[in-house]
Amino acid sequence: MTKQNFIDGAWVSGVGETENINPSDLSDVVDVYAQADAGQAGDAIAAARSALPGWRAATPQARADALDFVGTELLARKEELGRLLSREEGKILAEGIGEVTRAGQVFKFYAQEALRVAGEFVPSIRAGVTADVRYEPVGVVGLITPWNFPVAIPAWKAAPALAYGNTVVLKPAELTPAMAWVLTEILSRSGIPNGVFNLVMGPGRVVGNTLCVSEDVNALSFTGSVATGQTVRETVAARAGKIQEEMGGKSPLIVLDDADIENAVGCAIGGSVISTGQRCTSNTRIIATPGIHDQLLEAMVRRTEALRAGHALDEASDLGPVVDARQLKVNENYLQIARDEGAEIMCGGQRVERDTEGFFMSPAVIGQADNQMRHVREEIFGPVVSLLKADDYDHALAIANDSDLALSSGICTRSLKHAEHFKAHSDSGMVMVNLPTAGVDYHVPFGGRKKSSYGSREQGRAAREFFTSSKTSYTLPV
User: Fold this and answer.
1) For the segment 385-402, what is each residue's pLDDT rounded down to a tens digit?
2) Is the pTM of this model over 0.90?
3) Residues acting as catalytic residues
4) Which residues form a coiled coil (predicted)?
5) CATH code for 5-247+452-475?
6) What residues contact residue 420 under an 8 Å CB cut-off, 6+ apart?
7) CATH number of 252-433
């Protein structure tokens, strides 16, 4: 039976439907999902608008109980849902389970945040006058989420939106609707009133665009590509809507001569080609100083060649398939661009045959790379990592900061001096020391600089800035 959209507390058939195909096994149809049109997206927005006054007035305990219900069920079903996630997106099973776990933790965190009602009461600079600052829901919130984290990102957008009293319309990626549908089904049983949370599945040019242009959507949170993000931003800003965006990354990882080589290799490979490189925080630019460069390159190749790309549910797989045929072709095109630019493919980059037909690709290490090469400057979003050589730390820092994208960055070193200097002088929004650039906590701010992000930070208490609007009141007792 086709999985339907969820509008105003009811499951609604779409104007069409699409099959969700397992990228590990193209013969495996995960399920069939309804496709909404602009009219149904408009219905979802209207339902969210109608439900806003009631949910806005709900007690903090009511909000907390609903979110805690969702978090509890996600954690209880993490193995089952992790398997579903791995089938639809292609993450290996351990990562699928890990992502569902993270989503459950996020809902649990914001259940508690709903109870921590923040505000300020301060004396005015005028005699006898008091001032208070309160934080109110921003209103109806549209969420546009990507395919690479099909439940974690919807969770870390939806949970704070609901915790702070907003109503929600979620449009998930077309490639990965299953986990958004499951999250919606759990929310439908959480006790929230009809219209508070709505799911409309369908193409971005139709459903997403409706969210962007609607005057009844007060705020929109988007995660996706830089190019799409620019269009979304311009559209929402043109009508004075509130906008938050997380977009691309080309994260650098500096490896200095004094680094622990085993840890450095683990960071370089674990933070890049693992997860099939389909993370915006992946450290795809490795920048090594001369004393360790050759040893690091050899070790990276050796470690990468030992990795097995295969079916996401196969315990022998270290990484799963690329998400679809289009992304696989993008990866191959960038490898050819690298060759044409004079870089050398040290290993990997080939299509891999397994027992099932899928989008399998061996992870690739590129040597002889330069920071001005196109494949180094543009986000590939595949299991591809490039190694660059720097003269010294200062040169490495300059290379690291020479990018239009600045989401995350890292350094491997035993030097406290260099570690602290890098933390202070990296242009990115997040910095890792002796850790991969991919991998963050849910209780602290997430976000980048330059073209990687726009607007307020996501996650942790920082999410309040986007999902609420402050109001300052003055009182003179008479």
Assistant:
1) 999 999 999 999 999 999
2) yes
3) 246, 280
4) none
5) 3.40.605.10
6) none
7) 3.40.309.10
